Amino acid sequence: AQSVTQLDSHVSVSEGTPVLLRCNYSSSYSPSLFWYVQHPNKGLQLLLKYTSAATLVKGINGFEAEFKKSETSFHLTKPSAHMSDAAEYFCVVSEEEGKAGNMLTFGGGTRLMVKP
Amino acid sequence: SAVISQKPSRDICQRGTSLTIQCQVDSQVTMMFWYRQQPGQSLTLIATANQGSEATYESGFVIDKFPISRPNLTFSTLTVSNMSPEDSSIYLCSVGRSSGLRPEAFFGQGTRLTVV
Question: In whole angstroms, what is the distance from residue A34 CA to residue B104 CA?
């Protein structure tokens, strides 16, 4: 079985300061890991995904995440927050490798607020 | 990537009625997924829709309440039956695709349902 825990339901940062959204997972096998962002009244958008090629994954809009197997973590970071980053972020795990149409397990979501 | 068209994008319905949500994909996919996002909550998987077989429902969801059709490899519908205000949610269609050894998921824009 797999599970995902996003440690903070809300994160508030000032514009221009770093962003850290925390995610821990549990998995019986080597997981696939994703971060999705959901802006108000918009569909989910993939920010980045973990592949075995590199533990540090770079995504869109300056976001990146580091896969740490020893800590079972996949925290999302960004060096400098922008007002447009305000949204809901979901950490997602998929356990079944190499299978089209995998089911996903979602974390509870973290609402990121960016103050001017 | 996969392009998913979901409609309607939103609806306001009377309690006791039913609403059918359509999901169209621009390419053939084996499995399609239906999720629900209740207000302030994360996404929850309702069921997995396979072409040519009965949908597989997650715990807490039943076919009588959420009948699903999957007539071909590019289309699926989810019906929310005998609606009550508790069914007010965003309903999302999703498909999966393997990218190398790693899967990724694609989402429709969602259907925002309000039951009055």
Answer: 8
Which of B31, B32, B109 shows the shortest C-beta gap to A43? B109
Mean of pLDDT over chain A: 85
Environment class of A40 (CB within 10 Å of its CB; exposed 0-12, middle 13-18, buried 19+): exposed
Query: What is the 8-class DSSP label of residue B58?
Result: P
In angstroms, what CA-CA distances link B33 with A103, B41, B50, B90? 8, 18, 9, 14
Low-confidence ranges of chain B (pLDDT < 70): 1, 40, 96-105
CB A19 within 8 A of CB A11: yes
Q: Is the pLDDT of residue A100 over 50?
A: no
> Please, which residues 66-105 of chain B have a Cβ atom closer than 8 Å to chain A?
92, 94-98, 100-105
Contact B97 A100 (CB under 8 A): yes
DSSP structural state of residue A71: T
By the CB < 8 Å criterion, does A104 face chain B? yes
Query: Given an 8 Å threshold on Cβ–Cβ distance, is A92 in contact with B105?
Result: yes
Burial A66-93 (b: 16+ CB within 10 A, else e): ebeeeeebbbbebeebeeebbbbbbbbb
